[in-house]
Amino acid sequence: MECPAALVAKWAPGAASFEAIDERITRIQMGAWSWSALIGFLITFDCRFTVEGPARTRRSSPASEGPP
Fold it and tell me: What does the alpha-carbon distance between residue 50 and residue 53 come to, in Å, rounded to a whole number?
């Protein structure tokens, strides 16, 4: 996601893991009871993101945007 790791760290759920790719890109891994809950969490950051997987979630995420 195009969001600094410091901001992700502030709001990410306790079971999520994340890593800074660079100053503005963070990879986050987390689970939820539904894909819509995952997407709902991601859109709260108001940033561009790409769903890498699983495939079903990636196909079901109309809000997902690829890199510019």
Answer: 9
Collapse the DSSP code of 32 into the 3-class scheme (helix H, G, I; strand E, B; otherwise coil) and give the result: coil
Angle CA(11)–CA(63)–CA(40) in degrees, nearest 5?
35
Exposed, middle or buried by CB within 10 Å (0-12, 13-18, 19+), for 1?
A: buried
pTM for this entry: 0.71
Task: Please write the tens of the pLDDT for every residue from 28-62.
Answer: 988 878 877 877 888 888 888 888 777 776 676 65
Strands (DSSP E) along 1-68, which ranges? Answer: 17-20, 26-29
8 Å CB contact between 17 and 29: yes
Q: What is the distance between the alpha carbons of residues 30 and 16, in angstroms, rounded to a whole number?
A: 4
Q: Give the whole-angstrom CA distance, residue 12 versus residue 67.
A: 22
